[in-house]
Amino acid sequence: xxxxxxxxxxxxxxxxxxxxxxxxxxxxxxxxxxxxxxxxxxxxxxxxxxxxxxxxxxxxxxxxxxxxxxxxxxxxxxxxxxxxxxxxxxxxxxxxxxxxxxxxxxxxxxxxxxxxxxxxxxxxxxxxxxxxxxxxxxxxxxxxxxxxxxxxxxxxxxxxxxxxxxxxxxxxxxxxxxxxxxxxxxxxxxxxxxxxxxxxxxxxxxxxxxxxxxxxxxxxxxxxxxxxxxxxxxxxxxxxxxxxxxxxxxxxxxxxxxxxxxxxxxxxxxxxxxxxxxxxxxxxxxxxxxxxxxxxxxxxxxxxxxxxxxxxxxxxxxxxxxxxxxxxxxxxxxxxxxxxxxx
Length: 343
Ligand code: SF4
Hints:
By secondary structure, this protein is an alpha/beta fold.
């Protein structure tokens, strides 16, 4: 596999995506006023259950992960896709946006560069350089929708721009490692002090892809960027790819357990169970809601108030999550660095 690079065109109107010397994509940036379609200060349906202030979402990049360009093993498939099951795969494949456009060729791995799918991918920045988010309540914002990778926006410096303009807020990213973020951009991100980089791992991806993600997580930390690992788990993937699972388990020993956010695989049909259970703060989607809106423990399927069985379909929620999408680890790591410097 070969990582991509992303830079701006000389006039700043297009993002240029290269593999080596070859220019693969020149994508226009849209300048937009605040609209709910890309700036969601109260988060999405799941994140808004987090608490009074919620977790906001900045959909700077969306609907294209460019995975199909890097030439990794299984790169032609959306992450977690199952053979023969059309609408399986990463969450981005099953959104309403994706469903409506399925017949027009929506394909998360290729949107943005394959003829006919360019329009699905979008890169939106605020008009008039208005990056101020102080009028919104959330302390934490997720950058980019789940359908894109933040190593693209970190490469372009847009996450850093949001962070530098809003020093009292925290910016959480999720990266695949498909874009190599230049050293200068990583230093810039570390200097902001309010960016936490998430790197996603799973034993579903090929070994080349997995090793690249692990190497990128280590490289980010070399530049002092706080990192959490979002580990997507599914017992079936580990059984199918024991070598990949061994690599993940070995790597996790290098990390503080609070840096490991386990995300059991889920589709619209339901969740698998947490199998790592390393993090004392719990995993992502450990709490859910049932069809009646009551909180349930997603591993046992039991209601949290009286221990009775959940009713109907359950879905993950963020009630009381102590990870706060990596923001808690950012704070803890900063405190630990401060103590080390002081002692
Ligand atoms: S880490 Fe916590 S706050 Fe973030 S999406 Fe998962 S459950 Fe919600």
